[in-house]
Amino acid sequence: MSSHPLDPLTPAEFDLVRGLLANERGVGVGWRYTTLEAVEPVKTELEGFRTSGRRPPRLAHAVCLQRSTGSVYRARLDLDASRVVAFDHVPGVQPNFTLDEWEEANAMLLAHPEVRAALARRGVHDLSLVFMDTWTYGASFVPERYAGRRVGWSDTWVRGQVGANPYAGPVNGLHCIVDMNAMTLLEIEEGPTTQRPAVMGEYVPGLVPAELLGRRPERRPLEISQPRGVSFGVDGQLVTWQHWSFRVGFNGREGMTLHDVRYFDPYAPGGPRDRTVAHRMSFAEMVVPYRDPGPDHVRRTAFDIGEWGLGFLTQSLELGCDCLGEIRYLDATTHDSHGVPRVIRNAICLHEEDNGVLWKHVDHEGTAEVRRMRRFVVSFHVTVANYEYLVYWRFYEDGNIECEVRATGIMVVTHLAEDGGSPYGVLVDERTYAPHHQHFIVARLDLDVDGPDNTVQMTESRSVPIGPDNPYGIAVAIHNEPLRTESEGRQDYSWESQRAWKVVNPHVRNGLGTPVAYKLVPGSAIPTFFDPASPVFGRAQVVGHTLWVTPQDPDERWPAGEFVTQSRPGEGLPVWTAANRGIEDTDVVLWYTFGIHHIPRPEDWPVMPVDIVSFWLKPVGFFDRNPALDVAPAAEHCAPGSSDPGAVG
User: Fold this and answer.
1) For the sheet containing 432-435, what is the strand order?
2) Active site includes 304?
3) pTM (two decimals)
4) Distance (Å, rounded) from C-alpha 549 to C-alpha 560?
5) Interior angle at CA 306, CA 305 and CA 307, nearest 5
6) Does the annotation count 331 as an active-site position?
């Protein structure tokens, strides 16, 4: 069993769950596991374990799909007692798609004679070059004749040669509708086709034309070493670095999660103590709508977390390619649709890195004090079909936390007819355009700033009118407004006022006598550009506000609903917040939406340089002064009076 209540399920525990459900509920052949994860203890249970060692029950949660009937069941299991506690039917829902289904649909379609005939009519005969990519539906787009079924729709891609990029070869107008439970073809949609133009959609060196390679100046080796060892510690899932400590979790839907984030403050009023910053931080949803109403793209909206799961799509990392420096890795375990555990080696990368100057001043006598900045990075990388998302949580010596996402991979493209064009995309290659689209990422931030009872304040800057106290019109005042109810907690970004949000603990004061707080500093907030009547927006109402604030409820995890596949409008946050519960001086959760408004460029093709978005959590009065005053100078590089022109400083 696990060594800490927050640890993810072990491979042995996956096996135990599978055996219990097979023996007690007949879950086996003809079933799929779409979700299987540990049930995290509630905060009171974790506090009891922390203070007295009292271990809470080890529980697991599973979602099981019976293919023959389409019935969905939620299961809860007590792993300590080796028994199934609950097995409840959930009518009228579709759970997330699985990688097994995606692969099985591709194999079934390529073997189907009608699909082969449709490909042949388009001049495609070598099926080894064909790839059928199955997407999920929203309920509004499911044909009425297939209502109630678990259905997917497919794109068709053809490689130019073995090993080539399939996403450079779209087969316009050819889509299949699949019954995912029966794994059968329901129908083929055949629209207008376009002759493939002479595109250069390759990025692997052996396939890129020679004239596009070899002209860049040499990049000489950049080596990072720590000959005295790293400055961080890893004990199971517990990570410690400088004054920070936290636990790393993992599950199939969210991927990496961070728990029990604390800062040990040796200078705290009243004496040194461990101070809580966050109970849990993760990504809860990712919505990717394509903004092209044409037949190839009108259905193309992905809920990458709710419909697929970041954990299931997490990739193994390799030293020197994905992470650079003195690296420590954590493995992660997910499962296939049969409940069999799948271990992802080196799924999470842990390392520290230099990040330039932390603080500096040169006084009037020319004496300099400089400190180099170090940050600790926790990262994992996800491949969602054509796109990659590289997720980084960074911890800083001054108490800051940064969350950054880098998007890369390959854009979806469509070929154009001669002299054709599209107002809904950008030309990126010969007669080939990439449609406009967006990536909305929803971070779920369960912050506990020096304890669980917090109040979120909207804070913004306001110009003061010219008057007797401000004759030159230069004054700027700060307005802090506490958010008391969930309706007030629906907040939007304001560039004009530089709006941000502070999570304040009114019961804890710093040495200056003001309440301690952490500020959510918004970054990469983007508008939706949706018509309010859009059924796509109806399923993704969470992206309609930059921030939502709710009272903490461990059962409220999924802002677009638990069952997103083929969902209807109005699930998740819109339902929860309709009660307009109080959010003042209580345990709160912040749901922050940020992302990329992607208007493609030719420079994004054939493989996209990373597009970087981020937000910050910054202490505001959490400390009495700069907490990084005690960072030692880097004597090996920043020795006073160094005159070596080659010295690094």
Assistant:
1) 414-415, 432-435, 425-429
2) yes
3) 0.96
4) 15
5) 100
6) no
